[in-house]
Amino acid sequence: MASTVWKGYITFGLISVPIRLHAAARTERISFNQLHKTCGSRIRQPQTCPTCNRAVERSEITKGYEYEKDRYVLVEEAEIDKVAPASSQSMEILEFVKLSDVSPLYFDTSYFTVPEPPGRKAYQLLFETMRQTGYAAVAQLAMHQREFLALIHPVGNGLTLHTMYYADEVRQVTDYGQTTDVEIKPQEVQLARQLIESLAAPFDAAKYHDDFQRRVRELIEAKKQGQEIVATEAPRLAPVIDLMEALQKSLASKKPPLRAAQASAAESADAGEAEAEEAVPSRKRVARKA
Predict the structure, then answer these.
(1) Per-residue CA distances from 135 to 14, 91, 95, 159 (Å)
(2) Which of 259, 257, 111, 279 is nearest to 198 (CA)?
(3) pLDDT tens digit string along 107-150?
(4) 59 contacts: CB under 8 Å, gap ≥ 6
(5) pTM, entire model
(6) Mapping DSSP to helix (H, G, I), strand (E, B) and coil, where does residue 69 land?
(7) How far is the C-alpha of 214 from the C-alpha of 232, rounded, in Å?
(8) What pLDDT does residue 154 have?
């Protein structure tokens, strides 16, 4: 059971809904420890004070904000608690917006909201009304010593909350979207549309897996058993020479768009060869040491 990360109220108008937040997902990654090559011991990194030249206990550590080089304002936890906003206890819905109007660029972390027993009816009322109208709720909540912008909307049979980046946190990239001057022919759009539709399917997250993490686990298991690791061949990449030809061959082969275009381009580049090498990485088995 996921632990509760926030407990408080959603309020809209005069209605209050007591809820709990649970993290909807967490990253699963293989982690490594730092070891001493000579003896294999795990490296420890105690917190030390360079002035006192000794290790310090956790109880001796406080927070400090550097306002000038090597000059700090010391701030205690109790002082931070004094300035905590009202949203640390209750998040008021500021407005309702169409979910389609919110760019996914602003989404940060997802949480499941679970109603407390006294708030089940008000929770269900909010859920059902938002589901029927297609609106999402914008709110603010404070946790982990910062105030987050949040978006609440129905997902499945409950309300999901996404913490969001503020507008000034979303980075601007000068070259982003600077392809409007490129001419695309109607025939190319038609073929690309056919290719997309041929590869279209309902989204199912269970179909996708972290292949790199799987290979790292295989590497670890192989090394435990004294096996030698053989590198996987890299895909043979080539630029698309004829976009129309690449699209047509992609449709004919029904390969994923990227690999199909690369394979078609490779065939065009190597017209002198009897048969172009397919641009798909091959996997080699782990070979045992002799």
Answers:
(1) 19, 17, 10, 12
(2) 257
(3) 999 999 999 999 999 999 999 999 999 999 999 988 887 889 99
(4) none
(5) 0.66
(6) coil
(7) 14
(8) 96
Distance CA 96, CA 27 (A): 30
Contact between 111 and 10 (Cβ < 8 Å)? no
Read off the pLDDT of residues 30-84 as tens digits, 9 standing for 90 and up.
Answer: 777 878 788 887 877 778 888 888 888 888 888 898 888 888 988 888 887 787 7
Q: CA-CA distance, 223 to 167, in Å (whole number)?
A: 47
Query: Which secondary-structure segment (H or E) carries 217?
Result: helix 211-224
Tell me the helices (H) and strands (E) count for the chain, helix number first.
6, 13
Q: Which two tokens stand for residue 34?
A: 């730092």
Yes or no: domain 4-26+83-168 corresponds to CATH 3.40.1010.10: no
Delimit the domains of the chain by residue range.
Answer: 4-26+83-168, 186-200+210-288
- Show the tokens assigned to 267: 């065939």
In this structure, the dihedral spanned by the alpha carbons of residues 99, 103, 105 and 106, taken in order and rounded to 10 degrees, is -60
β-pairing, 54-55 with 146-155? Answer: unpaired
